[in-house]
Amino acid sequence: MTSVPASGARPARRPNRGLRRYLPSALTVAAYVILIIAVAPLIIVFGTALNAETMAFPPRIWTLDWMVAAITDERFVVGALNSAVVAGVAAALSTGFALPIALLVNRLPVRYARIVSLAFLGPLLVPSIIFALALYQVMVFTVGSANPLALMIGHVIITLPFPVRTVTAATEDLDPALHDAAASVGARPLYAFWRITFPLLKPGIVAGFLFAFLVSWNDFNISIFLSPYSYQLLPIKIYEYLLYDYKPVVAAVAAWSVIGTGALIMLIDRLVGLNVFIGKR
Fold first, then answer.
1. For 51, phi and psi rounded to 5 degrees?
2. Contacts of 148 (CB under 8 A, 6+ apart)
3. Residue 123 in this model has a pLDDT that exceeds 80
4. What domains can be seen in the chain, in order of their start residue?
5. Is the pLDDT of residue 89 over 90?
6. Which residues share a beta bridge with 62?
């Protein structure tokens, strides 16, 4: 039985569902605002690199001269090569150290595994400039001054948490029965690890290496304290250039660095997926 509204009473208005369908929610608006804030500095960097005159945004006269100069200037090329060498070696060492650590964490009870995992995330909790100053003082006391060895030690320590996390995440789906089954048919431990365990951990190893490479490549605080004057990395070259000159070429160098970083992140996502960094434990 349908109720009839009282005399003179206005029927309730139904919400306009069609209008609400096209109006974004507050959460959506907030997400887009945060995205714009995050992307805006990159847009300014690229726009400044394409300006023909001075460091200004938006560009008044468009040119690619500064982008070409950034990859032909000897100072930045040498700095980039030095950064690539240090980042590659540091990433390889930290990933190699992370492998036995992750296997140990996988064998521990969950309570102790969390404690060990958090302990190796310690370098991320300490401001890197404080850590760099402390390591610099240690090197002064031991070897007399900063040197490439001190620089490498610093980069290995600050990059170690990333492969530890990714390889540990990869071990969470590792079935110990596979290794035991290989041993039961006569496979030696090293052979069983290389043919069974290592291929299963490869996604975490690759992701950890690439993440560690990116962190080392972009590091400034450790490098400014521990780099010898004869072996300066790209972030230091950029900093020195900004102190004595102010041309769009430095924005072009940053633009190329952003392009390379983005390419590596896309490579990680394509090869193993970015979710490998999350894990369960």
1. -85, 135
2. 228, 231
3. no
4. 75-277 (1.10.3720.10)
5. yes
6. 51
